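To: structure desk
From: M.T.
Subject: fold request, one chain
Message: Could you run this one when you get a chance? Sequence is below, nothing fancy, just the single chain.
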Amino acid sequence: MLVKAERENFWMLNWLDQFMVGHKGFICGGCFKNIFSKEKVKDLDIFFESKADFDEAVQYFDSMTPGYNGDDKRDEEYTFFYENDNVKAYKYKRTGITIELCCKIFGTADEILKRFDFTVTKFSYYKEEVPDEPEFEPFDFDGMEELAESHEAKKPETHIEYKVLMDEKFFEHLHMKRLVIDDEIPFPMSTFERMFRYARYGYFPCRETKMKIVHALRELSEQQVELSESLYDGMD
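Reply: Done. Structure tokens follow.
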């Protein structure tokens, strides 16, 4: 089950705000495993609700690279790194972190996390537009009618807040270094291969997860194996 949490409880994520500027994307995936384990973060996967949002982000990050508009002397923050069918990636020049803009799948943070396999990857840092707190004004009996009309005409103001969405077992399984699948496995071959990759970092599947993967692999056709292998190419 996915649960929401306020950003105030996760002050260690504040440094991610700089990568959330200029686009509507949100960060999901394995980077949070590294952050909360106090390990070096090598890359950030940024997902989007639509192709239009992805294109808008590409335009923004392109504009932050040297050579944009033909000017090779600009001291910008990013350099283009690589591109494939799943992502377009940039290097943050100051720290070397890779920013991967994902275009293989689109959806809300909730929809994207439900397509992830292991609970230790089901963590998202996203922006949400919320209404401002109403301001209380002195009550004017003489101008009640005018005051009511002004409130009807005034549109509600909003602001952006950073939010966290995660699997309810995220921290428990992270502490145990346990690989757990609590939902369907849309791409079993990819999950199978990722299980071996996580084993190199000391994460191992529970018995139920191993059985789920085995049963899912048995049902794959050759075409489905090829499709399954392609999902996480370039994504953590």
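Reply (cont.): The longest strand covers residues 158-167. Let me know if you need anything else for the meeting.
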